Amino acid sequence: xxxxxxxxxxxxxxxxxxxxxxxxxxxxxxxxxxxxxxxxxxxxxxxxxxxxxxxxxxxxxxxxxxxxxxxxxxxxxxxxxxxxxxxxxxxxxxxxxxxxxxxxxxxxxxxxxxxxxxxxxxxxxxxxxxxxxxxxxxxxxxxxxxxxxxxxxxxxxxxxxxxxxxxxxxxxxxxxxxxxxxxxxxxxxxxxxxxxxxxxxxxxxxxxxxxxxxxxxxxxxxxxxxxxxxxxxxxxxxxxxxxxxxxxxxxxxxxxxxxxxxxxxxxxxxxxxxxxxxxxxxxxxxxxxxxxxxxxxxxxxxxxxxxxxxxxxxxxxxxxxxxxxxxxxxxxxxxxxxxxxxxxxxxxxxxxxxxxxxxxxxxxxxxxxxxxxxxxxx
Length: 378
Prior knowledge:
By secondary structure, the chain is of the alpha+beta class. Helices cover 33% and strands 16% of the residues. The protein is globular, with a radius of gyration of 24 Å.
């Protein structure tokens, strides 16, 4: 691990370090309280999730569109929620290509929306995007097809710097490993327009360095539809619980309620690694104990021997009571009924909040376990 200080984002709560088994990661520089904001990150790039999302969301800030949006005067396809967003517009190459993408009977892959947006970035931003870590690899044939398609959509006078099949391959790899989804609320609190799903995707340079854990210690909040929030596409990461100095900050790349095999399958397919976090190790032990129990029960049936006490003792040696309770306490306290994650509101005047907010449905309610948790006493 490197000990060179490198504060992440706009505050000095996190330090970027290098670990042999984890790569680049972010660790706490001091004790972090439950609900404390550990990182606010601004996107390096935002792009629509699909062509079907264009009539629903502003092509600049990705808020839900009002009844009378402002059309892009150039492409006449993109829509904006305000004159301000209209003046800021959207990626140049995407704007040029949209009329071709929506016309005719051709089906274009959504990856082109990302590539057209990425190639529209200024040179320095494009280089920063290309510097992000990636695990994904794609067949040369797929990249050749994608690069041929995007080449057909860019006129000679707009061909960007570093435009090549190699760069296209690298960009797709970075996107698949590091992109975040901007989710639409599952309820209808924003003018009745809430729609479940992804309205857009984004690449967030600091957030992309947060590693995975099946029991994360921070939770991501986004407030895309808040009208009074200027930087509405910024991501805010808050602590679920107390985090000690030097502890790595982790999120979950998959739903924490998913079973072990589903999580492992998704992580390997989408991110190229097998998770060996504490929770996964515990669940493997559970499975091994269960298989051992089943094997011994089968042996008892075959031999007629009664080994029930031996089985119980053996199982107790595999897992102690603390390990058995570990994941369940997390699910109860930090899971909302809607399936989202619950985290305390930010501390006020140094005091930990008794209120929990869901990062999915947005509901706020009292944390019933607040007074019994010694970590809430500061």
